[in-house]
From TrEMBL:
Family, similarity comment: Belongs to the peptidase M20A family.
Name of the featured protein: M20 family peptidase
Domain Peptidase M20 dimerisation: 238-381
Transmembrane segments: 6-25
Family matches, as SUPFAM superfamilies: Bacterial exopeptidase dimerisation domain, Zn-dependent exopeptidases
Keywords recorded for this protein, A-Z: Hydrolase, Membrane, Metal-binding, Protease, Transmembrane, Transmembrane helix, Zinc
Keyword match Transmembrane helix: yes
PANTHER family: N-FATTY-ACYL-AMINO ACID SYNTHASE/HYDROLASE PM20D1, N-FATTY-ACYL-AMINO ACID SYNTHASE_HYDROLASE PM20D1
Species per Swiss-Prot/TrEMBL record: Pseudophaeobacter arcticus
Length: 485
């Protein structure tokens, strides 16, 4: 009896030892890839003081996308002409829909497919009642020791100024790209991007297929991700789609003193509860796995054990990641009930009750998949599901993290910032890149600016600002990127 027990124990110890050995072996092999060869960042040598003044001046134009008729849209384009004379004599320029300029910098080798660098200069309005919270007037473009302040500095005039400053300096230095490089600055990104759409159509009509394009959609995140000490550049390969479903329940209505057991309002409430209890299936596959696999390599040894041994810990990891809205949004299509209607009087039964549920669609799902999920989950044939097809967008295709464009962007990030982590990611909001992507083999999304967690509230919020250091690094990034073309 004792001998059997001993053998069992010895067997158990052996299993544990082998398991530990496998876990440690996998963890040791799970390393970040080698990054920049040089610790000295690349410098283009552009005039940063001038660029800072240009960004400040750019902020002063009230290019608010809720007021597209404002003369500042046309005035902004004239300002670009005056500020970047070499760009405007070297490149050809057309102005397409919504005051969106498309520049063409002719390359020396016509056999190479062109690329497009994009940004936008329209901005979101200042939320009513938030004016007094701004440390500096939102359209004043105040420059202090560290920052340029104002609406649009981060989103997205900073990138526009960085691109043009880099191009102007390179033309002055006598540089001509081998590939043709297009630049496009959308005038209505914040309200749907008809300008970007027009650019894609324009390129398609001329049979021009871009090798790749780059737009906003992510940043170099510094201490934004808990547990990660070093900055990480998330170069996003896709952006989520969008659909809002309206659930409608009808009933006879009538006086509330004799209600049926199930009312229209009750039906809708039950449907919402079911949808919240049963999120759209998701997990660590495809682009979600690529992102967390890249990220996991930069964590501490203890955390790497989990990421490196997903064959064992995947369910645990998925549960942990699903626990926070930020990481959950990277795993699946999200479900957000946002609007409700019912009766207009407290003592009258609703003849019709409805709810609007906004879904942000992961690249693995289609709009039809979302509708099917909702129908199956609410399991109530009495509820009608409606949606406006013209407002529904699937997620954009997932671009390659091995293609030239991705590698050029990644190397240029390392050139400009020095060693840091780079990962392929997913944009969870919508950008113009979804339109431009229709004219490109691959579409990538990142702004070459380093932001911290506290900066996230500045987007579309109060006290938007860009540091002068960021502006300089951004110019160097675009310089390094253009040198490779
Ligand atoms: Zn933007």
């Amino acid at each position: 009896m004792g001998r059997v027990l001993l053998r069992l124990l010895a067997g158990l110890v052996l299993v544990v030892v082998v398991l530990l050995a496998v876990l440690i072996f996998n963890t040791l092999r799970y390393k970040p890839e080698a990054t920049a060869d040089s610790a000295t960042p690349y410098e283009l040598g552009a005039d940063i003081e001038q660029a800072t003044k240009d960004l400040s001046a750019a902020v002063k134009f009230r290019t608010v996308s809720t007021d597209l008729e404002h003369p500042d849209f046309a005035a902004f384009l004239t300002f670009l002409q005056d500020s970047y004379p070499l760009v405007h004599t070297t490149m050809s320029r057309e102005v397409l829909a919504r005051q969106t300029p498309l520049y063409k910098w002719q390359g020396s080798d016509p056999s190479l497919a062109p690329i497009l660098l994009a940004g936008h200069y329209d901005v979101v309005p200042i939320a009513p009642g938030s004016h007094h919270l701004w440390e500096h007037e939102p359209f004043s473009g105040v420059i202090d020791d560290e920052f340029v302040w104002g609406r649009g500095t981060l989103d997205d005039k900073g990138a526009v100024i960085a691109m043009l400053t880099a191009a102007e300096k390179m033309i002055a230095d006598g540089f001509t790209p081998k590939r043709t490089v297009y630049f496009s600055f959308g005038g209505d990104e914040e309200i749907g991007g008809l300008g970007a759409m027009a650019v894609a159509v324009h390129l398609n009509e001329q049979d021009i297929e871009l090798d790749w394009m780059l737009d906003e959609g992510s940043f170099v995140l510094d201490k934004v991700i808990p547990g990660l000490d070093q900055p990480v550049a998330s170069i996003n390969l896709s952006e989520k789609g969008y659909v809002t479903l309206e659930l409608v329940a009808k009933s006879a209505g009538g006086h509330s003193s004799m209600p049926p057991r199930v009312t229209a309002v009750g039906r809708i409430a039950k449907a919402i509860t079911r949808l919240q209890d049963n999120p759209v299936p998701g997990g660590l596959t495809g682009i979600s796995e690529e992102f967390f696999d890249g990220l996991g390599r930069h964590f501490s040894f203890g955390q790497r054990v989990v990421f490196a041994n997903r064959w064992l810990f995947k369910p645990l990891l998925e549960t942990i990641l699903a626990g926070s809205p930020t990481t959950d949004a990277m795993l699946r299509s999200t479900t957000a009930p946002t609007m409700l209607t019912g009766s207009s009087k407290d003592n009258v039964l609703a003849a019709e009750a409805s709810a609007k549920i906004n879904f942000r669609i992961h690249p693995r799902d289609s709009v039809a998949d979302i509708v099917a999920h909702v129908r199956q989950t609410i399991d109530d044939p009495e509820i009608e599901i409606r949606y406006d097809e013209s407002l529904a967008n699937p997620a954009s295709p997932v671009s390659s993290a091995q293609a030239t464009g991705y590698l050029d962007i990644k190397t240029s990030i390392l050139d400009a910032f020095g060693p840091l982590a780079t990962v392929p990611g997913l944009t969870i909001a919508a950008t113009d890149a979804r339109h431009y992507g229709k004219a490109a083999k691959d579409a990538y999304r990142i702004n070459p600016f380093k932001i911290e967690g506290s900066d996230l509230a500045r987007f579309h919020g109060t006290n938007e600002r860009l540091s002068i250091e960021n502006l300089e690094t951004g110019i160097n990034f675009f310089g390094a990127l253009l040198q490779k073309q």
